[in-house]
Amino acid sequence: xxxxxxxxxxxxAKLERDRQEKAEKSRREKQQQKLKDTTGIG
Length: 42
What we know:
Structural class: mainly alpha
Number of helices: 1
Largest sheet: none
Number of strands: 0
Distance between the termini: 55 Å
Protein backbone atom coordinates (compact mmCIF):
# COMPACT_ATOMS: atom_id res chain seq x y z
CA UNK A 1 0.00 0.00 0.00
CA UNK A 2 0.97 3.64 -0.36
CA UNK A 3 1.38 4.21 3.37
CA UNK A 4 3.83 1.32 3.62
CA UNK A 5 6.02 2.78 0.89
CA UNK A 6 6.11 6.12 2.67
CA UNK A 7 7.03 4.56 6.00
CA UNK A 8 9.82 2.60 4.32
CA UNK A 9 11.16 5.85 2.89
CA UNK A 10 11.02 7.44 6.34
CA UNK A 11 12.87 4.49 7.85
CA UNK A 12 15.56 4.68 5.20
CA ALA A 13 15.97 8.41 5.77
CA LYS A 14 16.18 7.85 9.52
CA LEU A 15 18.78 5.10 9.13
CA GLU A 16 20.80 7.33 6.82
CA ARG A 17 20.65 10.19 9.32
CA ASP A 18 21.67 7.87 12.17
CA ARG A 19 24.56 6.59 10.10
CA GLN A 20 25.75 10.10 9.29
CA GLU A 21 25.51 11.14 12.93
CA LYS A 22 27.56 8.12 13.99
CA ALA A 23 30.19 8.87 11.36
CA GLU A 24 30.33 12.52 12.40
CA LYS A 25 30.64 11.56 16.06
CA SER A 26 33.46 9.08 15.50
CA ARG A 27 35.22 11.60 13.25
CA ARG A 28 35.07 14.22 16.02
CA GLU A 29 36.33 11.72 18.57
CA LYS A 30 39.24 10.84 16.29
CA GLN A 31 40.12 14.52 15.92
CA GLN A 32 40.03 15.02 19.68
CA GLN A 33 42.26 11.98 20.12
CA LYS A 34 44.66 13.40 17.56
CA LEU A 35 44.73 16.73 19.43
CA LYS A 36 45.50 14.89 22.65
CA ASP A 37 48.31 12.99 20.94
CA THR A 38 49.92 16.10 19.46
CA THR A 39 49.58 18.31 22.54
CA GLY A 40 50.43 15.55 24.99
CA ILE A 41 47.49 16.58 27.16
CA GLY A 42 45.22 13.88 28.55
